[in-house]
Amino acid sequence: MDPRPGPFHVLRRSSLKPFMAKLIRVDQTLEIPEKLPVIALRDLVFFPYMVLPLLIGRPRSLGALKAAEAAEGMVLLLAQKEVEVEEPVTGDLHRVGTMARVLQTSHLPDGNVRVVLEGLGRVRVKRFLSSRGSFSAAVEPFVPEERHLPSPENTETEAIIRGVEKLYQEYIRLNERIPTELAESLAIDGDRTRLAHLMSGHMLILVPEKQELLESPSTPEHFGLIKEILVRELEILRIEEKLDSQIRQQMDQDRRQFYLQEQLKAIHHELGSDETDDWTTLEREIKAAALPPQARERADREFERLRKLNPIAPEAAVIRTYLDWILDLPWEKRTDDFADVAHAAKVLDDAHYGLEEVKERVLDHIAVLSLVGELRGPILCLVGPPGVGKTSLGRSIATGLGREFARVSLGGVRDEAEIRGHRRTYVGALPGRIIQGMKRAGTRNPVFLLDELDKLAGDFHGDPGAALLEVLDPEQNKTFTDHYLELDYDLSDVLFIATANTLAGIPRPLRDRMEVIRLPGYLETEKQAIAIKFLWDEQVERHGLSPARVSISPEAISHVIRSYTREAGVRELERQISRITRKLARRLAEGEVAEGSEIVVGIDQLSALLGPPPYLEDERDVRPQAGIANGLAWTEVGGEVLDIEVAMVPGSGKIQLTGTLGDVMKESAFAALTYARARADRLGLSPTFYKEIDLHIHIPEGATPKDGPSAGIAIATALISALTEVPTHPDVAMTGEITLRGRVLPVGGVKEKVVAAMRAGIKRVIIPAAVLGDLERLPEDVRSALEFIPVKTMDEVLRIALTRQPAPLDPPVSRGHVEGSSDLGVHLSQ
Fold first, then answer.
1. What is the secondary structure of 259-323 as a DSSP string?
2. Is residue 527 annotated as a catalytic residue, yes or no?
3. Residue from 359, 390, 751, 753 carrying the catalytic annotation
4. Active site residue 210
5. 3-state class of 116 per DSSP?
6. Chain segment 420-465, per-residue pLDDT in tens
7. Distance, CA of 589 to CA of 543 (rounded, Å)
8. Which one of the listed residues 710, 721, 792, 829 is annotated catalytic?
9. pLDDT tens digits along 530-547
10. Are 797 and 791 in contact (CB under 8 A)?
11. How many Cα atoms are found within 13 Å in the side-chain-facing hemisphere of 482?
């Protein structure tokens, strides 16, 4: 009997007994019985030409094996559709399987049977038959198969077969679970059908795919399916081979480095170096650290992970850095507040001149601390122009309280991770600026300065202003979470102080969480005191001069303030004093000044030291002129005096605005024009004057942006002065917004504007009556130097600002009432 039978077909004989078969080679045919006992295979598809040992243990399979003894050892092997089914029924089996012959059986002590089977050919189940204790099935051949080489003219099929052979050779090479001897047996075989079945049987793929191969209707289609599967499996195997190679290479490198590290330790030991084991030192530091429960639990867990890693592994460095951050943070350490109001007042007065409102607020906080012993940190926001001492004031507050000081600059920060930190999954991840500042401070209750809060930005990386909400909210910052630490950190004991040049750049939710304290610009007398008491001596010592030998007269300081600076703070004044001391240091170094002689800088020496003054004290025109008014505005650099000019020329009613005006100021200009048109009869103007002329409203210094509701009445005054040709008083300045009906609305920044007016030599200031209470906070020398005139309507402004009142038209056109003083009889004109 040929052990390798070929294709077959059924020879139906009525004389065949059930379950009996005679295998005879007759003209390439194989005789099979009409029914066979069935053995169900759980996780295997058996192919023809395969010889494999199987372990049989299920009762029905043992019964089928016993029945096969009466059928010359023939059985039908069918694969289960679901592997999990323990006792399959006919519906759980595929309908196409392999007829096999039992070559050898061995009974094992545990009751199972080890059987060696040889696959003979594919058959299809016509129907399942009932049998006691086992399955049986009526079968028929699946399809006839061509055993030998394809015909010469079928070159396409031959090309596919040869390609599959090459792919399968590589598949065997890459797959360690397939014996290499199989490649040699396949290479010498010329039977294409046998080759296809052997390839399918030895591929390590899932049962559904193997069943699909078993049910291939023809040899060419069988090879086509094999090719598709091999291309996919080879791609996976190549990737696995590449990854394995990289891992082996990395492991070899790690072992080499570890070996070198061990050698280095041995060398240090032989040389007598007293090195302490890193892990022991780190474990001791973790046990000795004052950590809250959650931080200690995380530190212990990360340390256990670290001990299991190779010291030179990249993840070990990440974990070690993380543990260092946990150990360096002040979780429990704090400084005792020096709650002495007198001491704090002396520290603030010694470091800062003026700023009484800010000092009072800080002293109030210290007084409460002295009574209750603990006060959750308030959020103070110091708002003022550059150079007024906001940052240095925060440092003085820390000194007065006896706390550590930490400063973080927020200018230009646009990434939320700058505040909350980066997650440890990123390369080079670090905690955010808040946690970094706490580490530098070294205590959990420092004075923390958030500088330039109004310079925050936002983009696709997130909104850092929103991240600060948790930091600055007293109800949330007790459990502040940094993305790097992934632990709650208590910020409730921190005294946060924010600084900003203007509130316009601070998000409204942040403003709601802070107590705003404004720092206006300094007066000339305050600048002079600051220069003499602080700036001069500091710059003299910084440049290597002796304060006992070098001094400056008060008159010279005043001249520097008036002619060389134009600012709300003292930063430019400090730079000018620094220039003076540098020049004096050079003279001493070159021997121009005799050794031991005293140097007193007077007004007559300033031109030689600083050059010609850039600002002239008499640059403001003191002549009454039509079409000009002095407006007051508040900017982020302090108060400013705006020269508003209006010119009219013959035209068709056009209006032009220049001087880099913002939207709010443009709206004020149009409101002023509408007010003038409504008041045309009382101002002595033709009702159609706006159709006959073009107006040009200009605010000089066009390079400086100007905006805000502060110049409405000033624009209206200059406009009406130009239209009526009535001059304005040059010593009058004004601030306030105008409505279409002539009311004067209140504005902010009165203190800064008043300081600017005094600096510019203004004598009288028109302010809205609603802000009259703000004048009480002004210094006495300011209130005595200026005349403040509160107004409610535009009519009052015109009576004060114009040198005379315009003559009304006779008779006035009455078409509606406009708010104003009762003695003028204000009316609207269409």
1. HHHHHHHHHHHHHT--PPPHHHHHHHHHHHS---HHHHHHHHHHHHHHHHS-TTSHHHHHHHHHH
2. no
3. 753
4. no
5. strand
6. 888 888 888 889 899 999 999 999 889 999 998 888 876 666 778 8
7. 11
8. 710
9. 888 888 988 988 888 888
10. yes
11. 25
